[in-house]
Specification:
The protein is mainly α. Among the domains are: 112 residues, Helix Hairpins, CATH 1.10.287; 45 residues. Helix content is 74%, strand content 0%.
Length: 279
């Protein structure tokens, strides 16, 4: 190793071990992890595609910490999410596509462009509703600049299905393709339920799959018309199911039993008890 490389490595070690090194420290650690000669073999092998699932997972873990009100865990999870950005930007830098500073400057400029009432000449004497309309108008201009001509262009394929359905419906609603009220959506929900039952009775697996998807899509639309976030509502329903089933297991355990040894009627009675107790 040359003297210059030795000095560079020493400087890098100093930064990597500096507890107050902040973002430069994290960026250098990632660069070192991805070094093809001296880095971590697992980290060196990763690509945009292999890291993407971890990025999605970390975003959900941030949301989970917020839902639980666990602020110490939130700090940790935000760090994990930041690492995903650092990871992806390091790969981008290695390929000559972009680096962390490009990404940071890009989002900074976007915030300036979308808030002329704060950083520009526009008045900030506007309602939150007006700001939302202005925000959507600016995003539409940005999509046009990227040659996204279709109303639904740019809605990411990688979003969770419920979230993507909601975004697609909101886009369509902006141009008037929407039901007038929730009652119409409820009627459509009944129609789709009947079609699902018909597909089941016919034994048509492909049609059953299609009708089930249609039913879920209408449920998302119903939530939108009722002012509810379907992703959030389903997460809460999952949490409620988990609490109540844990009650069933705990009560059976007190009697020296487990769910496998209990009848459905017994578990249903315990479920109703959990429900009555507000679980």
């Amino acid at each position: 190793m040359t003297r210059a490389k030795t000095r560079d490595r020493a400087d890098s070690d100093t930064l990597c071990h500096d507890p107050e090194g902040g973002l430069p420290r994290l960026l250098e650690i990632m660069r070192r992890l991805r070094d093809p000669e001296t880095g971590c073999p697992w980290d060196v092998e990763q690509t945009f595609e292999t890291i993407a699932p971890y990025t999605i997972e970390e975003a959900y873990e941030v949301s989970d910490a917020i839902d639980r009100g666990d602020w110490a865990d939130l700090k940790s999870e935000l760090g994990d999410l930041l690492l995903q950005t650092v990871y992806q930007t390091q790969i981008g830098a290695e390929r000559g596509l972009f680096d962390f500073h490009d990404v940071a400057n890009g989002i900074a400029q976007k915030m300036l462009d979308r808030h002329p009432h704060v950083f520009g000449d526009e008045s900030n004497a506007k309602s939150a509703e007006q700001q939302t309309r202005d925000w959507e108008a600016q995003k539409a201009r940005e999509r046009a600049a990227k040659a996204e001509k279709g109303v639904l262009d740019g809605v990411a394929l990688g979003l969770p299905a419920l979230m993507r359905a909601l975004k697609l419906q909101k886009r369509a609603a902006r141009v008037g393709f929407d039901w007038d009220d929730a009652d119409q959506v409820l009627a459509k929900l009944a129609e789709e339920s009947a079609e699902l039952a018909d597909a089941r009775d016919a034994g048509d697996a492909a049609k059953l799959h299609e009708e089930f998807g249609d039913l879920l899509f209408v449920v998302v639309n119903l939530g939108r018309h009722l002012g509810l976030d379907p992703e959030h509502a389903l997460r809460d329903a999952n949490a409620k199911f988990t609490r109540r089933f844990a009650h069933i297991e705990a009560e059976l355990a007190r009697a020296g039993r487990n769910p496998e040894a209990a009848s459905l009627d017994e578990m249903e009675a315990l479920w109703q008890a959990a429900k009555a107790n507000g679980l």
